[in-house]
Amino acid sequence: MSRRLELLSLPLDPLDLSGAVETTSAWITAESRTPRTVVTLNPEIVVQSQHNEALAQAIRSADLVTADGVGIVWAARQLLGETLPGRAPGIDIAFELMARHGASLRVFLLGGQPGVPELAAQQAVQRWGVTVVGAHHGFFAAAEDQRIAELVRDAQPDLLLTAMGAARQEIFNQYWGLIMNVPVMIGVGGTLDVLAGTAQLAPGWTRRMGVEWIWRVAGDRRRWNRAPRLAQFVRLVRRERRRLAAREQGR
Hints:
This is Exopolysaccharide biosynthesis protein, WecB/TagA/CpsF family. The chain is of the alpha/beta class.
């Protein structure tokens, strides 16, 4: 692990995809089975954390916080003068870990609508030969959280992919992490939908440029409410940059 940065009062580990996979892979194979959480930071999560202390605490408590979107790379350059080595989106970390470990990897898929995690499980087995030890949809009430956490614990996975949407998935992993006792727990957003085939993966050119979110928002009306958060993120970064500049001038 390299030095940890602080971006808009949140931690950020400057690792690219290769570094994130190496780190999480080492956690999976460690004999200690210490439970660890991974947050893949994007502008939407940053904006939500400004008004959601539980989310902010989940991010600060995470063992690994990677740059998911190009917006985070831009913000690090604007506010910290740091050029990050690359991005490490949750979907890419998850797919790389399953490809690397294959049948030796015990995976639990949590999230999506009823039926989606089961379809995703079938695809994961076909593509990488992983051992899926559990699959459960993400449409359950908070009163059911402990039951689900204990279900995960009893399955003894090495990797938990939690796909319940920004904030909900990060808070769930952090709060119930010690109960679930999974070596690597990652909030992966719509990854199970993509794996199941119920959502389309953004085109390669958008992913290479780091603007796949534009493609997703434009093509899915259900995501249109996310656009204002992206604008809020830009305003947040610019306001913080002005504050830092003013402080520097006052010295």
